[in-house]
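Run: sequence + adenosine-5'-triphosphate -> complex structure.
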Amino acid sequence: MTEPLLTAKGIVRRFGGITAVDNVDLHVHEGEFLSVIGPNGAGKTTLFNLISGQDRMDAGSVTLDGEDITNLTPHKMAEKRMARTFQHGRVFGNLTVMDNVLIGCHTRLNASRSRVPVVSPAIELLKALIRPKSVRDEEEAMRAEVREIIATFGERLTPRIDQPTYSLSYANRRRVEIARALALHPRVLILDEPTAGMNESETAEMQRIIGDLKAQGRTILLIEHKLNMVMQLSDRVMAMDNGKVISEGTPSQVRNDPKVIEAYLGHSTIGGDQPAEAELMPEPMTAAGGAE
Ligand SMILES: Nc1ncnc2c1ncn2[C@@H]1O[C@H](COP(=O)(O)OP(=O)(O)OP(=O)(O)O)[C@@H](O)[C@H]1O
Ligand SMILES: [Mg+2]
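>> structure
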């Protein structure tokens, strides 16, 4: 088997007396879809924050395609094309949909960049003011690409492309965030509860979009509480509780693992407003493991 694209080893993060992530290993192969599940407070978001450079780990290492990317800053992570969305949604409210997504293209700009040592910032400023044809052409190409990415979301975002994102619905702001992550041409796409706060039909629509991204062969890491979605999308699932990995395997192996059931039953809810029992309904005896 080939080497994984992304490997995290021995990840530890402590907050005061709490060990939020306790010696966790994770790997994902190119084109693989790995989901991380676990009850509230299990350490899932903290783990993703560490892998994607939003937070610094106390111990451990992360490699991307063999290159050490441990504790790189978020902008360096973006240069490595590690793209993520956030559990609570983060968009620039005063910027339009177009400009929010264009930000995702930033690391790919070439024409407006200068590689001349020392004076680069001055040259870049000058180019931004004068806007030579090469800069205008590059920007237009990126705008065209952003329009294509936004079209992925059907008619949800296209009619709103020039509106500031503060005027959008919550679900649309989450879509903008995913569009921005896609604009980075991610090598790894990291999604933290992309359907949190969405109703059933919005969730189904998002699941279709994420399914299409998977079908394109993208490498995806997903945190999600909606287990039916996890079961249908994932190649592999990892379950966490109290900062530790408690189970790992195929979706149905993990769902039926007594340690996972016990971890969930210890919580009245497993995220959002889903009662734990509802999410852990016995799985139908199908080979696909689908449980709709
Ligand atoms: N910045 C922080 N400071 C202190 N404690 C934190 C911080 N971030 C997370 N924690 C704690 O670390 C633990 C893991 O939190 P985390 O947000 O990673 O869980 P989670 O699995 O993503 O949960 P949820 O499903 O509710 O999103 C929790 O006990 C949380 O309170
Ligand atoms: Mg979380």
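>> summary
The pocket of magnesium ion (ligand 2) is lined by residues 44-45, 87 (CB under 6 Å). Confidence is low (pLDDT under 50) at residues 281-292.
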